[in-house]
Amino acid sequence: MVRIYLVEDDEVLQQLYQLYLSKMGHRIVGQSTNGIEALIDLYFNHRNNPPDILILDYKLPGKNGLELLEDLHKLDAIKQTKILFVTGMDNLQLQAFKLGVSKYIQKPLSFNILNQTISEIVSLISKS
Fold first, then answer.
1. How far apart are CA 128 and CA 116, in angstroms?
2. pLDDT in tens, 17-36
3. How many CB atoms lie within 10 A of CB 93?
4. Residue in 128, 126, 46, 58 with CA at minimum distance from that of residue 86
5. Residue 123: pLDDT band by 50, 70, 90 thresholds?
6. Taking Cα atoms as reference points, which of 50, 43, 46, 57 lies closest to residue 8?
7. Global model pTM greater than 0.85
8. Is 35 within 8 Å of 72 (Cβ atoms)?
9. How far apart are CA 98 and CA 3, in angstroms?
10. By C-alpha distance, which of 97, 57, 102 is closest to 80?
11. Neighbours of 124 (CB within 10 A)
């Protein structure tokens, strides 16, 4: 079981993530629907016990996913957290990986791909 934090502005998709990941045996430790809210919550409420995985959308109100990631790194708020970047845009991979993203999935995504990707990230966590 890994601890997962969700940042997704589509509330229906966020609920689907929650249901699916919980059924996989993972624990959802937090969620946000916009970049500023996520920054505040992760910094003040999760900094001392960060999630194992951050599932991060790109298009968010307040701050986009890359801006949020830059700020989280500057604040040292997600030291060991693995980042799964999920977006409908296909031109952000290089920027995302430069900011330490572990895995990148392009929307629309299937839950089979999500499951496989989460399993790969769990393997990375186990090795570190």
1. 19
2. 999 999 999 999 999 999 99
3. 14
4. 58
5. very high
6. 57
7. yes
8. no
9. 24
10. 102
11. 14
- Residues 109 and 3: their CA atoms lie apart, in Å, by 21
Mention every residue, 6+ apart, whose C-beta is less than 8 A from residue 123: none
Q: How far apart are CA 12 and CA 25, in angstroms?
A: 20
**Look-up: residue for tokens 């701050």?**
63
Residue 107 belongs to a domain with what CATH number? 3.40.50.2300
- Buried-state track 78-91, b at ≥16 Cβ within 10 A, e below 16: beebbbbbbbeeee
* Two tokens, residue 64: 């986009």
How many whole angstroms separate alpha carbon 116 and alpha carbon 107? 15
Structural domain of 18: 3-127
**Average pLDDT rounded to a whole number, residues 44-60:** 96
- Token code pair at residue 119: 């399993």
- The rounded percent of the chain whose pLDDT value lies above 90 is 87
Number of domains the chain contains: 1
